[in-house]
Amino acid sequence: MLTLLLIILAVVGLLIIMRREAGAPAALTLLGILGLVGLLFDAAVIGVLLLIAAAVVAVTGLETLRKQWLTPRIFKIFKKVAPKVSATERTALEAGSVSWDGELFSGKPQWNKLLAYKDEGLREDEQAFLDNQCAKAAGMCNAWDIAQERADLPQQLWDYLKKEGFFGMIIPKEYGGLGFSAKAQSMALQKLSANETLMVTVGVPNSLGPGELLLKYGTEEQKDHYLPRLADGREIPCFGLTGPRAGSDATSLPDTGIVCKEIIDGKETLGLRLTFEKRWITLAPIATVVGLAFRLFDPEKLLGDEEDRGITLALIPRDTQGMDIGRRHHPIGSPFMNGPIKGVDVFVPLDTIIGGQEMIGQGWRMLVECLSIGRCITLPSGATGTARYALGWSGGFTRVRRQFNVPVAEMEGVQEPLARMAAMAYISQATVYQTANLIDHGEKPAVPSAILKSQLTEFQRVLLSDAMDVHGGKAVTLGPRNYLGIGYSANPVAITVEGANIMTRNLMIFGQGAIRCHPYVLEELAAKDANDINAFDKAFFSHAGLIFGNAARAFTMGLGVGKESVPFDGPAAAYAQDIARLSAGFGLCADAAMASLGSALKKREMLSARLGDVLSNLYLASMVLKQWQAGEKVEGEDALLHYSCRFLLHRAEQAFVEIFDNLPNRAIGRVLNAVVMPTGRRWDKPHDDLARDIAKRVSTHSALRTKLLSNTWDTDDGEQPNPLARYNALLVDYDRAEVIYRTVNKAYAKGELPQTALHPEARVEVAFEKGLISEEETVFMREFEKNVLEMLTVDDFAYDAFAKDKDTLINHNATQAAPINPEEARVE
Asked: Where are the bilayer-spanning segments (predicted)?
């Protein structure tokens, strides 16, 4: 009996010590005391075993002992197996900052650190811009007109964007810009997402490009000249990075700049001779100033002893002699300005380098530091805005579209995608807003930027597909009334640019995060590079303590024991506790993968992707909880919280299962499965009752729908009709209409109305004649049905409308001059 008790005490005690990462002295003390108790009280075998375990802990865990024999051996092995970090990789790793992503990597997230990032909301001028200028700009857009008729924004819209400073949202007020916060910039882009071409046109100059680069690295002369001109639209910028052979692998760009001297206006000028070919450059066809990334060489060593000076950035006026610019690409589904830029031996003065000579060779660092912010905002905000509009349109359409005498929103086959759309819009809105709030607090979230870009644009892909499904023929028939189809076809643009999602998911999220966000890996690599065994000992054995700690935390919490205390109330608390549990499991799996695969993990992209999926879903769920905790709740929002968190945690657990099943070392996979999920999976997909509740709320005039669509363009006072405003108006009147529908349809089913009254309008008129409904109700229904029919109607065109070359048009209904003689037509 004593033996069993000692074993239980040892296991429980060690789990507590491991969870708290109390270290070797605590474990040594526990094992030593229990071993002595065994020897003294007639349990000699277990006593001896416990004392042997204590001795092992002492020689491996106590610093003075392990440094004598163990650390040198581990350090030698580590030098051989540790991945080599190239200069470009190190630059990317050192870019940006680590905040909540680091907490999730630690396996013991401190929620108070996340909640400490208070949200001050928008300034008065920011909210006014959102309410007025953004609404007016959105109201000047019609997708069909922009995409098919003019392949451009209207001239009056271009003029308005420049006049109101849309291109200077990130430029400080002292330079004539708007000086917006990251949150305000994000919310403006969400509102402008009523039209994808408008969002891209405004978003790109405010993201990675000359404006941001000049702000951070430009010389005072460059800032004073360009920033005011960029802010008021006198200059339209573009940035040339990608090319035929340099897309996602931007560091491989083959474009060159050669330092040389040139006689300009009779004066010898030190400058660069550039040869470049760029593609897929947004705003290039109309840009007046071009940011350019290239590899700088100094073969004559005019600037110093180095010949290869590295990636460098320059700012070049459009009218520079020799630059070929102005042609357009044709992006799928959207005619935003995008095109190639070329040049051979284009000479520019040395002062065109952004930041001057001091920033020569710093281009890659400049780009990744800016990308850590810009990639958090532009495309994720566009995806979030698209999600909210698609949800608003779909909820409205499915409520007024009736089949089998009921709204299709009442059919479960439609409710399922509506609820999914609502959850993805809710998750996206919370994530992009709270991450922008981190930026406003000074963070530069490099790894979260990859999470947001890939995850939210993938949400957009699913959302738009769901929206197309529930709209049916309304959305597949293009024309001025179709508010969805062109945006749907343009979705691959968001999936592809600013780091293709395939690359981002498979290589960047975990690949960068494993080193950048891990509490100790970067320290271990630095110690290796410096050959500092003392620094390595400290980092490595702290790392070992973290591994044991995460194993204990994941296992005990997986058994439902020792749940973490979290600063959340109500339904959010359980989800926060489980994020902590899965965070511990993630940390353990990340270390197991790195330890078992070493540098080969880089090539195991599918495994890296699944580890990234776990991190991504935990990050998204955390942002949902932060938003829930900070925001005002509305009726029905708790259902959306439950659906969203269960959706994300289910996906996280699925990624865990796929990690366990695909680790090359099957024994490690089975051990991890037993430790991280000792009782199996905990989270099912969201239940149907949640889907039904959410679908009803987003397809009716409800507080939840209003909250989800807040700060979108929802007024019908623009130059173009606003489908969202029209659906909202119909939903306000829908309950009244539904009562009349039931009265009329019930009378028709009983035979009280003639069988020829097949249309709702006809039934209303006959019901009025028979006194079944009042004159007031009839007048109301005439107007209501007129508006419904307008929203259900699709466009049609002249037979020859789509043939660009009318000479190729075939008249399939032309009368033949003479019938064919069967005898002549016979083949011998």
From this structure: 33-59
